[in-house]
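User: Structure tokens for both sequences below?

Assistant:
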Amino acid sequence: MRARSTALAGSVAAGLGATLLLATPTAASAHDTKTHGHTQKLAQLREATSAYRNGPAAPWSTQVFDKDKITCIEDPHGTGTMGIHFVDVGNLTDGRISRLAPEALIYEPGAGGSMTLIAAEYLVLADAWDADHARPPILYGHRFERVEAGNRYGLPAFYELHVWHEKANPHGTFNDWNPTVHC
């Protein structure tokens, strides 16, 4: 896959003070039962993201790299992998959460450079969320995890929730790390 590195969309990067590197690309699985009663909502998310199953496209077209320029994110403790994230930058910076428009779609790399959609991630910058809310966001009955500044992505503090809506995760639909995903 050919990609070119860019900063987090000019003024957005400056406003965030982020060192996160992003790239724009050129180019159905089993579901676990640990959904906590959200089967219909997860089906709606699968439908909303169905056009992106075989690879990223606008608006989810900005590829995420961590500070070490790693794009396929694996747990350093060996509990699993997230995959390759593509974000919708405008959605990432709007300070809101929309169930059918996650901030990131996550892909598992395949043979010949192919990518398969496996999960979605909801993200909101903590300062933007906290300005209007007394508590962290909750979606699908799950409280978002807070990731502090100084994280591997170079972002300020943010809240996040992974949803394995396309590939089963033996650790649960809303767990960050999936041991069945491979980079």
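Moving on to the next sequence.
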Amino acid sequence: MRDITNGPKLDWRRGAFAFVILAGLPLAACQSGGPGGEITSIDTAQGSEENIASLTSVIQRNPGDPEGYNVRGSAYGRAGKYREALRDFDKALELRPNFYQAYANRALIHRYLGDQAAALNDYNRSIQLNASYDAAYIGRGNLYRKAGRTQDAFNDFQKAIQLDTTDPRAYHNRGLIYQQQGQQGFAIEDFSTAISLAPDSAEPYNGRGLSYLAQNDEDNAFADFNTAIKLDGRNAEGWANQALIYERRGEKDKAAKSYAQAVRLDPNYKPAVDGLARTRGV
């Protein structure tokens, strides 16, 4: 049964890694938000009222099946209805105490609700029940990364990759750690793998572009930032990163326009705010 911690659509937003300094200009690292790199976008199909109603009908016909509660809990989670999701995962685990997927799903909901200790307990329990469950390692790795436990996070992403995961977050998030440590070649390899697994996601392109730029490969960086914008025009990081290339090239008018677009999308995104001030001479 597919759970809400897996899937090809990714949304990594603001988070754990501050910014890299390149050529005297602030460059935002590929970032994560929500609860640290998880899938945070609403799935309009799986989280729709119609789908939830359909799943409720299934549960009513077979109230003793834990699978039904796990699936509906996932739908509630995708729709942002976290309390409802938590109740369904609790019920699934009451009916099947060794339901390791439900533990990992409930852990993510605990994270959204701010209970990091409960989330860690659930990830640990999921791994105890199934030491080969890649989604639990990735989820726990994100929890560790958000808490600043970089080596523990790296170990979990590494474990998921050793298990032959097809979840792009494992590669993307390990790439972020390599990037933070200045190992740009390894970071580029990981971002490239994440792109191959999730070609429609903007964030791995932003991440790889930053590592290219750290290697002074401006052309490949610019191409990646432009692709990120094409895939997600509402991604403030992509616009700010594109603006940085324009700024490095001395094209301040173009840089100011891209920084301004980033600020419109996210008025609190400091690299864009600072970049706009520089290029507009404020």
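User: Anything stand out in the second?

Assistant: The longest helix spans residues 82-95.
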